[in-house]
Specification:
The chain is of the alpha+beta class and 60 residues long. The protein contains 1 helix and 4 strands. Bound molecules: zinc ion.
Amino acid sequence: MPRRNICSFCQYDIPIGRGIMYVRKDGTILHFCSKKCRNAMLEQKKNPRKTRWTKVYGQE
Ligand SMILES: [Zn+2]
């Protein structure tokens, strides 16, 4: 069943059929809308609340 996914980093909706699914070693499934978000979270380890282009920027 197709269902809506939310990007684990920027929190925006991911259109059906788009995006990247990533499974951590502990089994946690992460969805990313783009490589940009994947890199930001997994490689650069950025905080989405401190990253200007995310939906949660500036939120507590
Ligand atoms: Zn994203």
